[in-house]
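Note to self: the last two entries modelled the partners one at a time, which told us nothing about the interface. This time every component goes in together.
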Amino acid sequence: MRILILGAAGMVGRKLTERLVKDGRLGREAITRLDLHDVVEPERPDAPFAVETMTSDFSMPGEAEKLVAGRPDVIFHLAAIVSGEAEADFDKGYRINLDGTRYLFDAVRVVGGGYKPRLVFTSSIAVFGAPFPDAIGDEFFLTPLTSYGAQKAIGELLLADYTRRGFFDGVGIRLPTICVRPGKPNKAASGFFSGIIREPLNGQEAILPVSTDVRHAHASPRSAVNFLIHAASMDTSKIGPRRSLTMPSVSVTVGEQIDALRRVAGDEAVARIRHDPDPAIIRIVEGWPRHFDARRAESLGFRAESSFDEIISIYIEDELGGVKPR
Amino acid sequence: MRILILGAAGMVGRKLTERLVKDGRLGREAITRLDLHDVVEPERPDAPFAVETMTSDFSMPGEAEKLVAGRPDVIFHLAAIVSGEAEADFDKGYRINLDGTRYLFDAVRVVGGGYKPRLVFTSSIAVFGAPFPDAIGDEFFLTPLTSYGAQKAIGELLLADYTRRGFFDGVGIRLPTICVRPGKPNKAASGFFSGIIREPLNGQEAILPVSTDVRHAHASPRSAVNFLIHAASMDTSKIGPRRSLTMPSVSVTVGEQIDALRRVAGDEAVARIRHDPDPAIIRIVEGWPRHFDARRAESLGFRAESSFDEIISIYIEDELGGVKPR
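The predicted structure of the combined assembly is written out below.
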């Protein structure tokens, strides 16, 4: 089985690569080759199968054709300009997130000769826009309030139509906020959801810019990789024409996140969180969805964590070598 | 006020042109110039203001810029490849319905200098796909089951995002089936909804390919023009970020259509309908939406007919000079 990952240098792409290298297989099939693509050079892992790295801007005409020329059996399309940048640079967001996605889909379409790969597209809960019901179900309509969300919603429509026409076998997965993100704090408005766990566990101070009653939906990086692997290997005959699925997640308030941190790492860790309200972040977060009804994805076999304690434990296992720092 | 119509040679475009010429104004403002565009030469009406006709393929790079160079205050974007052709010719459907729409929106965006026209986009109930609830509300999600529907749904997402970003003031209107369509029978699967009224009123036989309990949603061509005019002149501050609206319609069964024909034109007209079931059309029609809850559009002042009798009467008034043929 040949696999292509677009966006392989990003956090989720790197973790997916690690997992594929470790497993040596996807579902029941042994991996024979892995192509890693990104706009910056992806790291090349030591693997028991052939690995190729490729660097290009896939939104340039002709580039996507090169990526699929090897007729990969599974394509993971994780490449995207993120929310903040797509809002700041209108042209770039549409060029990468819409044109790039369409070039990729069309490149697959024109290969011909019965070529019909599994194509896994990472969408986002940003396809939803306020006002929301208490729990957002799979039939709630898409009214994104950002250009990034609009581009992802358009990607979902293209994915469904190209799949319906038989050009590929597409599955879209709407990722919740991935938490706890490893690495340094970033400037994303959502960064504090990870920061208030990660920094205290690393003995550092964290800033909490919103109130403790803010509710949000989370899944671990490990779950994100599980979602991708399951989407790539599942029986798609049960999905029907609605090809994009809201992934399961743990919906908790910030207060419940902090309670979980206390249970896992004690009062000393919690004491490193400093509450410093930021009106700009409070306003942005108010427009975000809080809670999803993901029963369709669950009935199709997608699983996330069942508690925020578990999400913290996974961070400690996967990023801190299983050692709780005190 | 300067007005541009794309798709001016189509049935709705011609009726909109007639109405603007007759009124001489749109809302409270006098029309000073009307630009009529289509891929075939639109008819040039005698009008009390300047009229220009333009013929080009607006999906060719650079063409849309020419159309908006005169900075029209209102743009009616009615141009589209229809459902059947968009399904038969994948590339052409995406080129006109998606690329063409985006070129137009981008052409408006780059004019600059504070230019921010009202842009009315005709979407379609084809953005919805089965299975449906009994009445499809404004919050029902978009899962089109045709490429045409996917392209219209993408147009709605672009309209909302470009409006949110302040590039224009967009209103999308989802038209129900327009009935009674004037002219000759066509081969559209929906053609019989008009044919079983129009042909009997013109002394001709009509074929009914489905059972009389099939339910569908209709509005007259006159209502379609009213929707467009209202969308172009309404106060958009009340719409909010969800810029596309399902238009009001009359939901009736085919049997109720026939009962209305009997009331308006007698048994003799009804006797001209011949029931000849067509399994292909029956199957297509089963996937179509039947009934809408259009309360949001109604609360914003959009009005359709209140009965199918009224729809027939409008056909007789507008197309047959008010004379019921016997």
